[in-house]
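Query structure, 128 tokens:
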């Protein structure tokens, strides 16, 4: 199954579901900061759109309120976003890495962690 492409608002709603677990549409809407809170109907439409994309699922109904939970993980959604970003660069990682380094967002600890992950992946490949 391919992962759905998510908009900024959809990702914000998913973030609420990942952090809080199963929620009603009202609970999702109230999780937004009051100054930037979208209308209830906007959140409702977006949640139902996420459901049609199979990113969320309705887990139960309490009175007239549906309770939704995330059907995809944060890691899966992040992976899709990263793949899309790399697609903008023709799959090349160097421009992205160069920007992260130049902006100071990539730390030495991040590099060490990436190095460990690469070594682990190399060991897996050798054992095959």
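Result returned for the query:
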């Amino acid at each position: 199954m391919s992962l759905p492409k998510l908009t900024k608002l959809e990702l914000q709603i998913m973030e609420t579901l990942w952090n809080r677990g199963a929620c009603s549409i009202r609970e999702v809407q109230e999780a937004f900061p009051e100054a930037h809170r979208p209308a209830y109907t906007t959140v409702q439409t977006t949640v139902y759109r996420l459901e049609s994309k199979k990113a969320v699922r309705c887990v139960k109904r309490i009175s007239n309120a549906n309770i939704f939970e995330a059907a995809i993980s944060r890691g899966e959604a992040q992976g899709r976003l990263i793949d899309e970003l790399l697609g903008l660069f023709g799959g090349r990682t160097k421009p992205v890495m160069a920007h992260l380094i130049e902006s100071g967002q990539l730390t030495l600890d991040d590099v060490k962690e990436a190095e460990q992950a690469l070594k682990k992946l190399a060991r897996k490949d050798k054992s095959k």
